[in-house]
Write a structure and sequence with these properties.
alpha/beta; three-stranded mixed beta sheet; globular
Length: 112
């Protein structure tokens, strides 16, 4: 059953390590998105994220591990807190952002 929904942007600039210049310039949107993600995590530790990207339609399993390296900085991302997992160097941006938000809020897993 769906109990909470949040719509968040998926620019890599949500991740402070990827912001050129001052991170204060993007702090407002990042803080709002983190607040929304924390609100989701209060209700459920397992998430379903839906996003769009330029590649073919596909599911990204919660066992996926990847990085924002394609956006300039090697910030690791995991879609679950389980050890191990499948490395996917070309994970879609929505999966990267969902995994990063999961890690910031303590949710257990996210299916994308």
């Amino acid at each position: 059953m769906i109990t909470r929904v949040a719509v968040v942007p998926n620019p890599p600039l949500l991740v402070p390590e990827l912001v050129p210049g001052s991170v204060a310039d993007t702090a407002g949107v990042r803080d709002a998105v983190l607040e929304a993600a924390a609100w989701l995590a209060e209700e459920s530790e397992h998430w379903l994220a839906i996003g769009v990207h330029d590649g073919p339609r596909r599911a990204v399993p919660p066992s996926t591990r990847s990085t924002f390296a394609g956006y300039g900085v090697d910030v690791p991302v995991a879609l679950s807190d389980e050890p191990g997992g499948e490395g996917e160097p070309d994970a879609p941006l929505p999966a990267l952002v969902a995994g990063w938000l999961r890690g910031q809020t303590g949710a257990t897993s996210v299916h994308v």
